[in-house]
Write a structure and sequence with these properties.
The chain has no helices and 11 strands. It is an all-beta fold. The strands form 2 sheets. Strands 2, 4, 5, 6, 9, 10 and 11 form a 7-stranded mixed beta sheet that branches. A 4-stranded antiparallel beta sheet has the order 1-3-8-7, with no helix packed on it. It is globular. The N and C termini lie far apart (40 Å). The model has no long low-confidence stretch (mean pLDDT 96).
Length: 115
């Protein structure tokens, strides 16, 4: 069983920055691909960014150049640095790790960007 705990959400003005963190309780964190998803009210959950076990990253087009995903294998954490935030980034952000054999989610953290 893997537990994921997000932190770092909050209220920020447009153009501001936030950093989300996700702490994973897992024995071999470095072996896991990790991702951030978000879900805005009335919308489907969408992939924001993913980082592989080897450190390769990919991003949703809407956040490219503004968000950066990173991982700290020693501390079993994955972070999402969000810069130049826009009101449309407002959503609940979820940490996730999944494969064909498992699918784990955190409880989510609210990010609200005011205009």
């Amino acid at each position: 069983q893997v537990q994921l705990v997000e932190s770092g959400g909050g209220l920020v003005q447009a153009g501001g920055s936030l950093r989300l963190s996700c702490a994973a309780s897992v024995s071999v964190f470095r072996a896991y691909s990790m991702a951030w998803y978000r879900q805005a009210p009335g919308k489907q959950r969408e992939l924001v960014a993913r980082i592989s076990s080897g450190g390769s990253t990919n991003y949703a087009d809407s956040v490219k150049g503004r968000f950066t995903i990173s991982r700290d294998n020693a501390n079993a954490t994955v972070s999402l640095q969000m810069n130049s935030l826009k009101p449309e980034d407002t959503a609940v952000y979820y940490c996730n790790t999944h494969s064909q054999f498992y699918d784990y989610w955190g409880q989510g953290t609210q990010v609200t960007v005011s205009s």
